[in-house]
């Protein structure tokens, strides 16, 4: 895929090792059905970098939109739903002294 489209070799989420090709592959060949599916299950971007994943969500939605048959409205709904999950996760951690992400948890180890 990257040979045909070198841009797919670029990072999917800033600061994480996942490539754009992984999102496209997940949509085309692994039956990934949404932004959360790609950023939480097909990669571990949400776990490793919640805020960076939220920032990348619009680009991820646009990247897989053609393969998943999404129009602009569906892309926006996917991003909104993903970011709502991030907000719920963040709110659940308040008062529990939980690390922001998995990377924060290992930093003190």
Explain how this protein is built.
- This protein has helices at 20-29, 35-42, 45-48, 50-68, 72-93, 102-107.
- It has one domain (6-95): Alpha-glycerophosphate oxidase, cap domain (Helicase, Ruva Protein, domain 3), CATH 1.10.8.
- It contains six helices and no strands.
- The chain is an all-alpha fold and 109 residues long.
- The model has no long low-confidence stretch (mean pLDDT 91).
- Helix 4 (50-68) packs antiparallel against helix 5.
Low-confidence stretches: none
SSE pattern: HHHHHH
Strand residues, percent: under 5%
The CATH homologous superfamily corresponds to Alpha-glycerophosphate oxidase, cap domain
Taking the sheet with the most strands, its summary is: none
Task: Count the E strands.
Answer: 0
Task: Furnish the topology, listing elements before pairings.
Elements (H helix, E strand, L loop, with lengths): L19 H10 L5 H8 L2 H4 L1 H19 L3 H22 L8 H6 L2
Helix pairs in contact: 1-4, 4-5
Brief sketch in words of this structure:
This protein has 109 residues and is an all-alpha fold. The protein contains 6 helices and no strands.
């Amino acid at each position: 895929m990257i040979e045909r489209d070198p841009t797919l070799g670029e990072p999917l989420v800033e600061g994480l090792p996942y490539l754009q090709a992984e999102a496209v592959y997940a949509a085309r060949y692994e039956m990934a059905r949404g932004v959360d599916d790609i950023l939480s299950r097909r990669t571990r971007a949400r776990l490793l970098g919640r805020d960076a994943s939220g920032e990348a969500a619009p680009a991820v939605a646009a990247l897989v939109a053609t393969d998943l048959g999404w129009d602009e409205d569906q892309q926006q709904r996917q991003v909104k739903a993903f970011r709502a999950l991030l907000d719920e996760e963040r709110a659940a951690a308040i008062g529990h002294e939980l690390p922001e992400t998995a990377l924060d948890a290992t930093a003190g180890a």
